[in-house]
């Protein structure tokens, strides 16, 4: 889809969704914009739904609430012969909770929206939700940007988020899948995650496990990463620092013997030096060590 199409599409798309909710024009017994009860098995998930992760504990809580109090807000669907009787537009958690509670019927609102807008609707609907985790939000941003060639600034205007917020959220997609999973499951925070961007995958895993296991704050995590990034020069320098002072006295006899052969020999700090002036000197040195060793 062209960039220009989204320029008009996002704003109008939200308007179309709102209009579809408010529509009271009837067509047969299934009136558009009005709540009816549908068989849960007749509703198929939106094939373009970007949301992949659902908190099982929260889903169970919602299921128990629906069993006790009923469904407050209807799900939204469109009719489709391609994917099934109906395609879900909004309310996948509510639909899943119904199935978990073994409730056969669910309150639904049938919208009059073109099926070719399913992906955009699903993305926008997810971005507007408060319970969308930050990784799902990042993927939704990335999909809109990639599919419609938007800049971060242009997207910020369309979805009413700051450009800085969008950029920082998208940076989380540079993290390893392991860190993303922990972030999506609320094991670590976005504050923890963003300071791990740029670390290699193995280090990211180690830092993440440390955060979870030791319950590190963001500040403590920053210090941990700083230590990891610190070059190991200090410990290396200590081991390679000043040379030891060796006792060279046992070599005095060697110096004396070599000097008798007119060789210039010196003992200096940790050094044994023999000055060579000719090939004959080399022969003398060689003969000495050959006969001595």
TrEMBL record:
One of its GO terms (molecular function) is DNA binding. The keyword DNA-binding applies. GO terms for cellular component: chromosome. Keywords: Chromosome partition, DNA-binding. Gene3D superfamilies: 1.10.10.2830, 3.90.1530.30. GO terms for biological process: chromosome segregation; positive regulation of sporulation resulting in formation of a cellular spore. SUPFAM superfamilies: KorB DNA-binding domain-like (SSF109709), ParB/Sulfiredoxin (SSF110849). It holds the Pfam family ParB_N. It comes from the Bacteria. The keyword DNA-binding applies. Residues 36-127 form the ParB-like N-terminal domain. Belongs to the ParB family. This is ParB-like partition protein.
């Amino acid at each position: 889809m062209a960039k220009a199409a989204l320029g008009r599409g996002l704003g109008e798309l939200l308007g179309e969704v709102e209009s579809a909710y408010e529509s009271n024009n009837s067509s047969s017994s299934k009136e558009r914009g009005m709540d009816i009860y549908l068989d849960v098995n007749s509703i198929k998930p939106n094939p373009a739904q970007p949301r992949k992760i659902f908190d099982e504990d929260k889903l169970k809580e919602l299921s128990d609430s629906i069993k006790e109090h009923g469904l407050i807000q209807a799900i939204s669907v469109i009719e489709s012969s391609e994917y099934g009787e109906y395609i879900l537009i909004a309310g996948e958690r509510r639909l899943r909770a119904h199935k978990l509670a073994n409730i056969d019927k669910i309150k639904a609102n049938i919208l009059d929206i073109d099926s070719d807008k399913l992906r955009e609707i699903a993305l926008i609907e997810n971005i507007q939700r408060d319970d969308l985790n930050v990784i799902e939000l990042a993927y939704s941003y990335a999909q809109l940007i990639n599919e419609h060639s938007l800049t971060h600034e242009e997207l910020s205007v369309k979805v009413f988020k700051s450009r800085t917020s969008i950029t920082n959220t998208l940076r989380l997609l540079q993290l390893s899948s392991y860190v993303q999973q922990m972030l999506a499951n609320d094991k670590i925070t976005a504050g923890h995650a963003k300071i791990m961007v740029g670390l290699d995958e193995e280090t990211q895993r180690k830092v993440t496990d440390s955060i979870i296991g030791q319950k590190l704050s963001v500040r403590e995590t920053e210090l941990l990463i700083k230590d990891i990034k610190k070059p190991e020069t200090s410990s290396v320098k200590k081991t390679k620092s000043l040379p030891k002072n060796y006792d060279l006295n046992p070599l005095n006899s060697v110096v004396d013997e070599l000097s008798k052969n007119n060789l210039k020999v010196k003992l200096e700090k940790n050094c044994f030096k023999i000055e060579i002036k000719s090939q004959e000197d080399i022969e003398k040195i060689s003969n000495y060590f050959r006969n001595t060793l």
